[in-house]
Structure prediction request, 653 residues.
Amino acid sequence: MRGIRPLAVLGALAVALTGCGPGWGHDPDLPHIAIVSKGFQHQFWQAVKRGAEEEAERRGAGVTFMGPPTEQDVEAQLNMLTNAIARQPDAIGLAALDSRATEPLLRQAEEAGIPVIAFDSGVDSEIPRTTVATDNRAAAALAAEHLAGLLGGTGTVGLVVHDQTSGSGVDRRDGFLDWMRANAPGITVLDPQYGGGDQLVSADITKAVLAANPDLDGLYASNEGSAVGVLRGVAESGHEDLVVVGFDSGRAQLDAVRDGTLAGAVTQDPIDMGRRLVLAGLAAMDGEELPATVDTGFHWYDARTVDDPALAGVLYQ
Amino acid sequence: MTATDTTDTVDHPARRGGLAGAARARLQQLLALASLLVIGAFFSVASPFFLTYGNFTAILFSTVVIGTLAVGTTLVIVSGGIDLSLGTGMALCAVVAGVLMVDLGLPLAVGVPAAILFGGLIGLVNGLNVTLLGIPPFIATLAMMLVAGGLALVLSNSAPIYFTDVPGYLDISTGNLVPGVDFPNAVLILLVAAVVAGLVLSRTVLGRHTYSVGSNEAATALSGVDVRRVKIAVYVLAGLFTGLAGILISARLGSAQPATGMGYELQAIAAVVIGGTSLSGGRGSVVGTLIGALIISVLNNGLQIMSIPQEWQNVILGCVILVAVYADMLRRRRRG
Prediction:
């Protein structure tokens, strides 16, 4: 009967899948860390994945890495976390999109005796054994220090920040403002503007700031989307002698640093984040005490250092 | 479930093959069910973690939102229409629930029905746009997808609304009807919703007219049926299910996430198609849709439990959809 044919195709698919099985998946004899991230295909998360896989390989462990298609897909992330717990890994790494929605599943993991390591941003819960993340305040202070240095300690600067509610947005804003207030009395800082990390919105904001402050000397952008938007806004409004510093990397920012339109940027170290996540997971499954937070480092790069092999690992395209 | 024998209640005139037709309809549903069982059996052998009670409820729980949307939109698709506003419409209904119960402090008994009715209102607008204005369903509901997604952001100030202070709200999805037995209420609600949709489609005049409009709109109109009223009714029903999905997702997450929902409509449509409902209308069943939704969540769950790299999970899911549609085409070719 011809109706059977689709079933046969499905069967063939299943057989093919079994054939691929051993090459895929993870070795069941190794300690296994299931990582549930905030995203998957973005360069930042791929770099975290790479760092985690490299470290796991070195330590004789196995990792699996999954994440929802967008950072709005809270439900998809919950399903992934549910499935990760069902697989009974030895530890779980979690970058929660919404801490509160995650809480019941965290309790489930705790009951199952699976230690949880938070990464990228903290989780509002007692359950994670530690949080592996960038110290965004310190990183933003480094950006402020470089901007002040480039301006010789005098002038007026503006901020285009990606978000005023998330932890990373607040920390990257306040780290910058606090450093300027404490160390750069000659620099006037305008009120922060928020562009949602959207390139076009950030570009429009930048043009408005420049229209209102024609004598502006410098701009700081708090993430990749904001920085690309600021650069676009500066270019469209024809200001040439403005000093712009950015955050994170990505192709557009790297190119802008090379051609001089971006003076430099602070980048997080997602590969190091992946590595330290695995180390924390292995330590947690051995019952070791962990510090409340693990700082995964950040680096300043500019035209001189952008192609330095030492930074190749942290600058993602 | 009563909807088992609904497929092909009415079909192209050339196809009213009596017993043979009914047998083929059953065969299609059996095929979908058999696929589900084959996939399930495969994962049971492949991973020791798949066939456990905890994982069984996890799969059902993860089917709830897409399943509810898919069940509702089955009616629209059987009538020959399409609804792309399901996903963001769901987010908007969740936000409306949040505004009513969190911001305005209305009780659960008012807020929940109001949010579901709001979904019906979205459906009514879709239905009127399609019938009175004559806008093709694809365009009308695409526009509504954008409007609803935007309104969800406007009403919520682009921030999640948390239901922490609404007593009992989270239990709608995560509670258990029988205390101590781990079986989420949301799954029961999906089953009840599916029975209702199945009954509407198989046991009511509206259901018969829906099949009829989907298979031959002109002939149905000539036979004296008010086609416009049928179409408006199916969009309103789909909208009510969208509202219900909005309640279920926000009760599970503990918050209304205004930016979520985009893409859910395509997953729901995929579930409908895998379940054997024809995108050109006139044919399909709610039971098939449920099986289709289950196939998607079993695949997602099983592939993740087997630690298949995420890139490949979508490849495999896509292949399954191709196989399902291919099966549908084979049946139609046979018929012609």
Q: What stands out?
A: Residues 1-19 of chain B have pLDDT under 50 and may be disordered. Chain B has one domain: 24-335.
